[in-house]
Amino acid sequence: MKNITRLAIMGLLAVMFTGCYKQTRLEQMGTSAQFKVIGLDDPVPSPDEADLIVTTHIKKASYLLKPRTADMPYTFMIFIDGQKFAEDVKGVEEVESDMKEEKGKGIHFALEKRFRLKPGFHELAVKTDYGKSPKVRIEFIGGRIHALKFEPVYGPRKVGLKKAFQQGLVDYKVYLDGSEIP
Question: Which distant-in-sequence residues (6+ apart) come within 8 Å of 154 by Cβ?
């Protein structure tokens, strides 16, 4: 009986140590991106820093069983090298839009933030309640201001329906300094 108890305790300890080992390895995998949020009108960064202006938006429909008003905040999450930045944004009731897919009554939420980070390669993504955008890996040059735009792509979940914001977000198109990133 003592042998079975000892074996059970040793097995439990082995499982616990294995879990701790895996946790440490997961923590080591993340890179420590150092970035800070700055004002949109701050001066141009020095050559040993790069600025990134991230813009994105989304339009949400309001349904009878799931009402949404302009006062209800919407949370955008921006991931820079695995580190999360979250911002709650108030919406604006909107009927007309420049985008064909966003025509109709709904609440429009927009985010524009400027980050200062070290030059070099960085991995970025945006997350909404629909899911995460594809990760993009971009090289930022020091002393410059880069513009990264996540443009929503709306679409039907079923074939044959027209593309509209009421159908939900399908994906994002990503643009860096005005050029689409494939």
Answer: 101, 102, 163, 164, 165, 167, 168, 169, 170
Gap between the Cα atoms of 126 and 143, Å rounded = 24
78: exposed, middle or buried (C-beta count within 10 Å: 0-12, 13-18, 19+)? buried
14 vs 8, 42, 83, CA distance in Å? 10, 53, 31
pTM, to two decimals: 0.72
Per-residue pLDDT tens over the stretch 16-44: 555 443 333 323 333 445 888 999 999 99
- 109 pairs with which residues across the strands? 58
- In whole angstroms, how far apart are CA 143 and each of 43, 49, 51, 113, 136? 10, 6, 8, 18, 21
Tell me the average pLDDT across 154-175.
74
Q: What DSSP element (H or E) covers 60?
A: strand 50-60
Which residue is associated with the tokens 């009927």? 95
Q: Retrieve residue 110's tokens.
A: 């927009």
Task: Tell me the DSSP string of 166-181.
Answer: GG-EEEEEEEETTEEE
Instruction: Report residue 5 CA to chain centroid gap.
Output: 49
Cα torsion 61, 94, 131, 72 to 10°: value is: -80
